């Protein structure tokens, strides 16, 4: 039976989590390792990193064309965000072999089956899920992910991609990086779809802020991409003020150092924490985490 960990002295993280991870096999035990990373070691970091990962996919003209055509971001952006977060966190929490992870994966595959999505676009999105958590924890986490954890992280997402029937998944992170560099040269072009989906997503983020701070989110978020001009050009955004990124990085690093010694939230963090804005305390079915238009379509199809 898998161990469950608890805070030490009511506020300290348990070092036993990292010890268990280190003793597991990166490939064979990748589902358990990802659960431990998600629930205990990096829950806040992974949530922020995967938000940026999804945002970065808008740099691709072909990905954004599909997303913008659905109209989900402009019509029901908060629901789309909450559904995606819940599906991904259930998969990371229980793995594809666990009941909730299996059901979430089935829901993802069923939803994707309604759209014509190129294999290359699936691969690019998959790469962002691998890359951004590694990048975030390296710069802002309570500690960097170890090479062992990074390998497990890669194997987890590669395994998930196989179960999503994505062809051509590279055999290593380095090979995936090389593939993505070529993909971005082909697809990161200024276009209206990328700009529209990025703007709609920023509107979601800004709706979470007090009224006086709305309008400030855009330059702050884009400052994290100020070293990636192809992305900024693709979403038709000017380079943010140069002073923003150093200020934001100092704040994020300071928060990361604090979390190295102090658990600032629940432990472990479960998929339903924090409470999402769409469902609140109301129960939901994983099978219903889909756009409303797909729900109506699937109901007609029986």
UniProtKB/TrEMBL annotation:
Its transmembrane ranges are none
Enumerate the Pfam families for this protein: MPAB_Lcp_cat
Name the domain of life. Bacteria
Example of a GO MF term: oxidoreductase activity
Q: Where is the composition biased (Basic and acidic residues)?
A: 274-302
InterPro entries hit by this protein: MPAB, MPAB/Lcp_cat_dom
Q: Which residues form the ER-bound oxygenase mpaB/mpaB'/Rubber oxygenase catalytic domain?
A: 65-219
Give the start-end ranges of region Disordered: 266-302
Under what name is this protein listed? Uncharacterized protein DUF2236
């Amino acid at each position: 039976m898998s161990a469950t960990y608890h805070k030490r002295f009511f506020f300290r993280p348990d070092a036993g989590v990292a010890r268990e991870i280190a003793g597991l096999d990166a490939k064979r035990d990748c589902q358990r390792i990802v659960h431990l990373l998600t629930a205990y070691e990096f829950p806040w970091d992974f949530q922020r990193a995967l938000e940026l990962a999804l945002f970065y996919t808008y740099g691709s003209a072909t990905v954004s064309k599909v997303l913008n055509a659905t109209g989900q971001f402009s019509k029901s952006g908060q629901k789309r965000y909450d559904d995606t977060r819940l599906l991904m966190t259930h998969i990371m929490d229980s793995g594809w072999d666990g009941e909730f992870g299996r059901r979430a994966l089935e829901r993802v595959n069923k939803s994707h089956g309604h759209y014509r999505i190129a294999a290359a676009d699936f691969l690019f999105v998959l790469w962002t899920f691998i890359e951004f958590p590694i990048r975030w924890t390296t710069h802002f986490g309570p500690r960097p992910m170890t090479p062992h954890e990074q390998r497990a992280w890669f194997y987890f997402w590669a395994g998930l991609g196989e179960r999503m029937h994505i062809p051509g998944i590279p055999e290593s992170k380095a090979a995936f990086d090389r593939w993505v560099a070529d993909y971005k040269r082909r697809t990161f072009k200024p276009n209206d779809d990328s700009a529209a989906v990025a703007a709609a997503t920023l509107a979601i983020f800004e709706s979470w802020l007090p009224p006086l701070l709305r309008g400030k989110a855009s330059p702050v978020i884009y400052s994290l991409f100020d070293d990636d001009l192809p992305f900024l050009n693709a979403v038709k955004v000017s380079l943010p003020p140069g002073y923003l990124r150093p200020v934001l990085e100092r704040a994020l690093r300071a928060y990361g150092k604090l979390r190295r010694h102090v658990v600032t939230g629940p432990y472990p963090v479960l998929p339903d924490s924090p409470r999402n804005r769409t469902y609140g305390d109301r129960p939901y079915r994983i099978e219903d985490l889909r756009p409303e238009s797909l729900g109506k379509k699937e109901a007609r199809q029986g």
